Amino acid sequence: MDAKELERQLPYFTGTEKWTRISARMPWLLLTDGALFLAENAGAFWFFELIGSHQNKKLKDEFQVWKLKRDGKGCLITCEDGNLNELARQQVDYTDFPLDDFECFANWDDPEHFLYA
After folding, report:
1. Taking the CA atoms of the chain, what radius of gyration do you get in angstroms?
2. Running DSSP on this structure, what letter comes out for residue 117?
3. Cα(117)–Cα(115) distance, rounded to whole angstroms?
4. Which domains does the chain carry?
5. What's the CA gap between 109 and 90, in Å, rounded?
6. What gap in Å lies between CA 29 and CA 12, rounded to an integer?
7. Nearest Cα residue to 85 out of 68, 64, 70, 106
8. pTM (2 d.p.)
9. Exposed/middle/buried for residue 8 (C-beta within 10 Å: 0-12, 13-18, 19+)
10. Which residues lie closer than 8 Å to 30 by C-beta, 6 or more apart?
11. How confident is the model at residue 116 (pLDDT cuts 50, 70, 90)?
């Protein structure tokens, strides 16, 4: 799906009807309907697994704002706490992610479930 179509459809997702587990390696990782739509239609499962790989004791207590910003052939992915304090950063050398920038929210619902919105 191209960037224009993704940008047109993503705003229709609010809340979720069901949570979807996407990784056997990270069974606590759950996606909303909108996050799953993005993963499937933008080939972005890697993005959510990358975020999952950054989870540690420091991040478990934080509301998380994850941002992807394209730069050339790659992108910079950052995590903030919602108050513009950076918690994590990772450069990705190559991606075919169709959007120039994207932002999503995540938090630990309880010790067992990490949620994306």
Report:
1. 14
2. -
3. 7
4. 27-116 (3.10.450.150)
5. 24
6. 23
7. 64
8. 0.89
9. exposed
10. 19, 20, 21, 109, 113, 114, 115, 116
11. low
